[in-house]
Amino acid sequence: MRILHVNKFLYRRGGAEGYLLDLSELQRAAGHDVEYWGMDHPDNLPGLPLADTFAPHVELEPAPGGLAGLAASARMVWSPASGRGLARALDRFRPDVVHFHNVYHQLSPSVLRPVRARGITSVMTLHDYKLACPSYQMLSHGAVCERCVGGSTLNAVRERCKSGSLGASAVLALESGLHRRLHAYDAVDRFVSPSHFLREVMVRAGMAPERIVTLANVVSGGEEAPVPSPPAGPGAGARFVFAGRLSPEKGVDTLVRAVGGAPDGIGLDVAGDGPSRAELEALAAQVAPGRVHFHGRLDKAQVADLVRRSVAMVVPSRWYENQPMTILEAFAAATPVVATDLGGMPELVRDGVEGHLVPPNDAEALARVLGGLAADPDGARAMGSRARERFTAEFTGEVHLAGLAAVYDEARRASERGRAHTTTEG
Questions:
Q1: Disulfide check for 134: which of 77, 172, 290, 375 has CB 3.0–4.6 Å away?
Q2: How many beta carbons lie within 10 A of that of residue 404, not counting itself?
Q3: How far is residue 35's CA from residue 50's CA, in Å, rounded to a whole number?
Q4: CA dist 97 to 34, 117, 154, 167, 249, Å?
């Protein structure tokens, strides 16, 4: 099968890109012909065959000002250049299926039109809540918010959900409102939701249930049995790990405060970068001096080494995480997970089984859990073993590819029915 993956970024930037690259590796190993299409970006993987057809590069964080800002806003709603570029890539590569990922803002739903026009099967993995929430996080000023789910996108303007900015929030509300009114994403044959929670949100937002299939994500390289690295007690320097983007919704500030309030000897390794890094480093120096090490962006092998040597992976998010790839990576490494009880995470981490669940924004509760795990290395190891068993049963490449093949087949049938209906009407 010839598969074209479409995502705005084509380098290991976050969970969506990690899934995209891992899935492509698995599909190629299974004998499929796989290529990428996205936005031109200096960090993209080198030597991509379709790079000359990519959408033009635009920076939206921070958003440009003046006329450039107006042009970027228009591009978020509809990007003719993106549609034309993907059309050229389709005619050159001739895929059997186009698998969309994060196309919002930099690419826009204009990329769906040439796929539908050519009668090519399309699937889209939902990595966040963008189709239900203009700012995609379902957060308003640090608190969980569901006002736009099934409601007006103007709520984003009233709440100033985007960085407290009236203008930026208005742009997002306009973008999402127009896309909803125009049914811009109806061109997708089937959507894949990595969690039941996200699927339920999308159904409440008006998406037909039969168009969404729940299929857990996958990480590659976890099929081999991990090399055990027993967690140490606090006296020997027990360390926990966070891996991900350093931005407010991730709740790393709560984790840093928890480490500062945990028993002596407990430390934290932070792998990742982002807009909150300087602020978090200053906070760590104040409340947990010498106990938090910021590594910056690491490659996959380096992150895996940190995870393997840690007592537990910590995912302290204050937003509705869908299905964090870091949790699956920890499970593959036989490492337990401490996560907040939000979004799709309770579907993965069962409290007391593969790790622990804690309330969001509660540094004291998190500190108690970290201290308990560090003081009981045998219990932590047992949780890690159960996490590994869960990974082997549910999240391997073999399991995921079988499920995705069924989704592709269902999407193909839906596409054929759609074309037959259009022909009959014509």
A1: 172
A2: 22
A3: 8
A4: 10, 13, 35, 38, 34
Q: Please write the tens of the pLDDT for every residue from 115-165.
A: 999 999 999 999 999 999 999 999 998 889 999 998 999 999 999 988 889
pLDDT tens digits for 364-400?
Answer: 999 999 999 999 999 999 999 999 999 999 999 999 9
Q: Under 8 Å CB-to-CB from 163, ≥6 apart: which residues?
A: none
Angle of helix 397-425 relative to helix 15-29, nearest 10 degrees? Answer: 90
CB of 82 closer than 8 Å to CB of 53: no
Class of domain 234-394 as given by CATH: alpha beta
Structure tokens belonging to residue 193: 């939701």
**Element at 51 (helix H, strand E):** none
User: Over pLDDT 70: what percentage of the chain?
Assistant: 95
Provide the pLDDT for residue 234. 47
Nearest to 292 by CA among 261, 308, 269, 317: 269
For residues 204 and 219, give the distance between their C-alpha atoms in angstroms, rounded to a whole number.
29
Beta pairing, strands 143-144 & 139-140: antiparallel
Boundaries of every domain in the chain: 2-218+397-425, 234-394
Nearest to 40 by CA among 85, 93, 88, 3: 85
C-alpha span between 332 and 377 (Å, rounded) = 18
Q: What is the model's pLDDT at position 231?
A: 54
Mean of the pLDDT values across residues 34-55? 98
Q: Are 1 and 121 in contact (CB under 8 A)?
A: no
CATH 3.40.50.2000 fits 2-218+397-425, yes or no: yes
Q: How far is CA 358 from CA 143, 186, 369, 405, 419, in A?
A: 16, 37, 8, 36, 48
**Euclidean distance between CA atoms 56 and 43, whole angstroms:** 14
Structure tokens at 244: 């991900």
Instruction: Using the structure block, give the residue that is written with the tokens 């970024």.
Output: 9
State the pLDDT at residue 246: 95
Q: Is the fold of 2-218+397-425 the same as that of 234-394?
A: yes
